[in-house]
């Protein structure tokens, strides 16, 4: 059931990447500036497709929106210490993959409050760190790791080059053989065997 | 265990949002991680208002923005305080970062002092000349190398230095907009007069000065920290009326010897000023309400105000040329 959001009682159907649908209140959805820009005034026929995000992520994002429906208007990011117990639980129960998915979805849906809180949590990971510690946090490879990676890539490239050369050589031989008439092919093989035999005899 | 988070895999606007939530010093550190992080911090468009370089036993780069500041220190390894080992600033070095009460030591990256400066100039879009403060201990650093790294400078501040060091610095950094000179390092008066006659905009001079020194000054704003006699200032005013110091806009100094009466305006035609005119000058030049003011005029018609405030046996005088 979908209809223009004139009251907070209105429910909208949301479609996830799996093709599943679930409903979200209009009041919760209106925290999404993307939704406001796309559907608020014109309404939606059928489920609203947010199909870049899976059901679990979208449900998590709208769980936050439903919870913050009754909170006062957003006025900039809060300090981590000012977050409510509910907010802290909300963030703490997510694993990293879910957290990243939630940030991406919240960013796409342009939910200012949730995006800001997520960004504040990430900013906390950087505070008080020196460059090496930051590199570890943001999982950037170190110089040694980059060097090792480069060596592996060079080895791989060299191996690939060898394989390519061999393939080209084989292709060339095959081509040559294919071009020869059968009798000539038999003669060529005989000559090769004779040369081999002679080389053995000389030893 | 430290948290791990692949920040750079997030959309750019989210990364920018994260960076907007961290302080100036952490931004600076973040910018040093890779070319990508440098570009991200640069894209925030934070502009430094001033970049000051402090040089004593160590070198500090102090970056001020409109909202915050950050301080980076180099060569501040603890060594024997009596020993001043020479330092080559072209050799790559690590920095220590300071912000409020936090001190962050970062063993990487290692950059030459010149490259540290270039990095800061790039990420904080700073193209103006630097303010450089030389203090005791700066002899560790070779002046020519410093000149090569710092280029032309805005403010040159010299205090507590051996004369030899001051002379070298004044020779190499010869055209600052603002000069603070604590002590005259020259034996020959003609050398200090060459400094006074240079056309820096602001001159602050803490050592003794003569009437000749005053008359040679070619700066717009001058502050003398030592006192002049009433006679010396009186003669200066008479020379100014006849046309000396044409660039001078403002000068402040102390006058002593008031026990014999106030004679520093003797022989000078003074004009009374209206209350409104005095109020306007106080507002414009941020002067106290207790200053006594009179107006004088030079022969070409240019007017000036002599504002003074008496304290014990001396006058604190501001000489302000009106446009």
UniProtKB/TrEMBL annotation, chain A:
Alphabetized UniProt keyword annotations: Ubl conjugation pathway
Top-rank lineage group of the source organism: Eukaryota
Presence of the UniProt keyword Transferase in the record: no
Domain SKP1 component dimerisation: 113-159
A Pfam short name: Skp1
Alphabetized InterPro entries for the sequence: SKP1, SKP1-like, SKP1-like_dim_sf, SKP1/BTB/POZ_sf, Skp1_comp_dimer, Skp1_comp_POZ
GO biological process assignments: ubiquitin-dependent protein catabolic process
The keyword Zinc appears for this protein: no
Residue ranges annotated for the SKP1 component POZ domain, each copy included: 14-69
Family: Belongs to the SKP1 family.
Protein name: Skp1-related protein
From TrEMBL, chain B:
Residue span, F-box domain: 4-51
Pfam family, one: F-box
Domain of life: Eukaryota
PROSITE patterns in UniProt: FBOX (PS50181)
The protein, known as: F-box domain-containing protein
Source organism of the structure: Caenorhabditis remanei (Caenorhabditis vulgaris)
